[in-house]
Specification:
This protein has helices spanning about 1-10, 25-35, 55-65, 75-85, 95-125, and strands spanning about 40-45, 70, 90. The chain has a three-stranded parallel sheet with strand order 1-2-3, with helices on both faces. It has five helices and three strands. Helices cover about 55% and strands about 10% of the residues. By secondary structure, it is mainly alpha-helical.
Length: about 130
Amino acid sequence: KAQARIRELTEQYGLNGVVSQCGQLPREQALRMQRDADALIFLSFAAEHYGGILTAKLFEYLASGTRILSMGSRRDEATARWIEQSERGRDFGSDVVALAEEIVRVVREAADEAKYVLLSTRARIGSQ
């Protein structure tokens, strides 16, 4: 049900070319995709009576070298500390506006890099 809702929102906001939902994949393919992504969204678990829960997915994301954008119902200090001290990303807690602004920045940055690659390729082809 959650994946269907994400698909609906992706279509509603015109993000079909930006957001990917792949479901279950072989581990090596998933790790490669994490490495190649512009950013990874980490949904942290933060419960009032269970602070400091760190999932294996967090460490997998940290090992990828890709920027991590973490969010949850509130900021989890243990998760935030790992992400921010490793300089791999930022934990936004429940600040949806700041997270949205960062996602827009990441998408624009990726689009600018893609334009550069496209222009560079055209220039190379034209000069041969």
